[in-house]
Design brief:
By secondary structure, this protein is of the alpha+beta class. It is built from 3 helices and 5 strands; from the N terminus they run βααββαββ. A 5-stranded antiparallel beta sheet has the order 1-2-3-5-4, with helices on one face. A hairpin with a 3-residue loop joins β2 and β3. α1 packs antiparallel against α2 and α2 packs antiparallel against α3. It starts with about 30 loop residues before the first strand and ends with a strand.
């Protein structure tokens, strides 16, 4: 499935209150414990939310879906750490279609590549493959300023 068809990116110029087109969550947002400060701990936490809160008798995330989730979490967390002045918060919200990730950082800068088509670069020119991977594996991407500075990058990672 090509997940880029449903990708919508909102910038700081988006109307207030417009955050995404995500369906209502099936469970409450799980704010990660304070110990989630690395991509590895964020991956483990996101996986635990899927296994404990999203999976049920009627649906179970496949291993391939969990791998996609891990890749998206890794890229978002690494971007927050490397380019966003640190991982200021991490949330995982189960929805009917998958999980919504919200990654908070300390930078107001919105990466220009976030608005790209998701093509993988032909050659590596100092930027990685992170945003193309995020754009290909996630949908309903939003980037919004945080009160007091920084931004929140939110994506829906489909698990069905």
């Amino acid at each position: 499935m090509d997940r880029t068809d449903t990708t919508a990116i909102a910038s700081a110029g988006s109307p207030p209150g417009v955050t995404s087109l995500a369906p209502a969550p099936t469970a409450s947002t799980a704010t990660a414990p304070a110990g989630v400060t690395t991509a590895a701990t964020a991956r483990a936490y996101a996986r635990s939310v899927v296994l404990e809160q999203w999976n049920d008798a009627d649906r179970t995330a496949t291993e391939a879906a969990l791998i996609d989730l891990s890749l998206v979490v890794s890229e978002l967390a690494a971007n927050a750490i490397r380019h966003g002045g640190g991982l200021a918060g991490f949330e995982v919200t189960p929805t009917r279609r998958g999980v919504r990730l919200a990654v908070h950082d300390n930078s107001d800068v919105i990466p220009a590549v976030a608005f790209g088509p998701g093509y993988l670069p032909a050659k590596h020119h100092g930027n990685g493959y992170g945003w193309p991977v995020i754009i290909r594996l996630a949908c309903e991407i939003t980037i919004e300023p945080r009160p007091g500075g920084g931004k929140t990058v939110s994506v829906l990672v489909p698990l069905v």
